[in-house]
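Lab notebook, bench 4. The sequencing result for the construct came back, and we need a structural model before the next group meeting so we can plan mutations. Quick request posted to the team channel:

Model the 3D structure of this chain.
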Amino acid sequence: MRVLAVVPARGGSAGVPLKNLALVGGVPLVSRAVRACLRAELVDQVVVSTDHDGIAETAREAGAIVVERPTELSGATASSESAVLHALDALGEDPEVVVLVQATSAFIDPDDLSAAVRKVLDGEADSVVSGLPTHEFLWTATGGGINHDPAVRQRRQDRAPEFRENGAFYVMRTAGLREHGHRFFGEIAVQPVPTKHAIEIDNPEDLELVRALAPFIDTPEPIDVDAVITDFDGVHTDDRAYVDSDGREMVLVNRSDGMGVALLKRSGVKVLVMSTEQNPVVAARARKLGVPVLQGLADKRTVLRDWLSIEGLDPARVAYVGNDVNDLGPMAEVGWPVATPDAHPRVRAAARVVLTRPGGSGAVRELCDRVVAARPELPAPPASEVRTRPRLGPVAIGEVMVGHGEPVYVIGEIGINHNGDLDLARQLIDVAADAGCQAVKFQKRTPAICVPEEQKGQIRQTPWGEMTYLEYKERTEFGRDEYRQIAKYCDERGLHWFASPWDVPSVEFLEEMDVLVHKVASASVADHELLRALAATGKPIMLSTGMSTLSEIDAAVEILGTEKLIMMHATSTYPLPPEEANLRTITTLKERYGVPVGYSGHERGLQISLAAVTLGAVCVERHITLDRTMWGSDHAASLEPSGLEHLVRDIRIIEQAMGDGVKRVFPGEEAPKARLRRVTV
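Done. Here's the predicted structure in token form:
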């Protein structure tokens, strides 16, 4: 062993009680010192000399060897050199170089430490002290200049820098230390350290200062946790609210946060949103992200404790990100308290990590990326296993994950119920958004291709007068301008939009519109030309299975593949009678194809769709209309606004009620259990 680092860390401290265990950036000072030494390229071993059991345990956890410091060397008058010499004797080794490292310097750079060691190893110096370059003018209390002549005021650039000893570390030849008994001997050199690393903690004010600086100085590192909990206002948003003339609130969120949350969930990290507000905006955003939300919380800390207990999570492996003083309680409960850069000063000081992006500008995404960076990549299964084991998703549609264990993805199918009227389409988009859907779906055709030759000239009575069937289909078909407006309006309302293309030119059209996903209508299951065009897009595909046999579905799956496939159980009867729903086919399709399976319903009422959710449907699609009596072929089997609202509401209730299948006693049961439970033997 050539280089040994010794960290003296006694339990007593006059300025700050148990200073060496004080947390800075969520890490005890003694651990920070040990880590800096272990990261220094030229340090071979790290020893902590202490008289305190708690410091000893913390030092071992950080990777140091612990030497028990005797009482006579642990008092306030004992020198640091005595602790170093005792550690050397206890180890029975005399390395070439010994480094005295002070835990009271929170920001030791391993590179600076190695640079100082190299000066001794290379023979440039016998002793090296860390120092801060300074051009300060020093004065006596009586007004005399110490390092300058007051009568000749030099400019900063005319003065060579002096160095103020900052107490972070001292590097010495071991033989010289033993000979002289102190750290300064022979040829002495200074290792410059930057101002931001030079703060030494002697009193509570110093500790408060380094805690505030730590998030900005510490090098960002992956955050290894099993759960991420976020406040809402000021974290997902910029803490502002926009209020319209009807008193409805709107907030600004960042799309990249959604993908970050999706990546977290995909890597197995639990996510929860907590808010003191009871606001539909919070619920709507959580629903869009596909994560649970707890709102209207008077005591977030207690609720967090209960949630962690129910989920069986170790608080030390949980991150909580907040921005205001009501987040201090829950931040104190977890191992990774996180703050936004514009958070309240007390919140920043309490944080182990301060993000660089503000709330509403990607703060959540930044945290998610650092958490995902700490997760091990899942190994690819053997090829034989790929063939035999169901995949079962989830499938990413934009930033939303659709699959088992994710919130049900609810689609309001506008289809052709807009009757070619853009204003009516906007009203139906509003219906879907207000009900809490995640998406709306249309149908896209090239009438000259899709309308059979024998039907093109047939005369139809329409609300616009008498016309041929081909003219009617062209009259109700939207083009680029309409779909651009639809895309813009859906984005404003926070909805995905896509369509069922009925021919290859329609696939090309939708690709130009940059839809997130494509839907295969039941009528198109056997249109292999269309399926090949859809597969070539590389986009996720929803495949409806109405009016199809298993062999027809097999052939479609062979073309589409299963990597980004969501299958939709459907029966193409309008309206659907209960005896033809055949909901157990949801299980059949999951087991046969190993993909997430949803439900596309054409029934009247809600019961069958809700039953599909209890059987594992990962998404639900229902036709929607303003009025079932409107003119058009699909209105009669559609849901009106109140029906859609009730459907989404009841799906969310069912999701909560399904639970995770783990039998346990919930917090609400504790009181009646204590009051009513009778135990006999």
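The mean pLDDT is 89.
Will bring this to the meeting.
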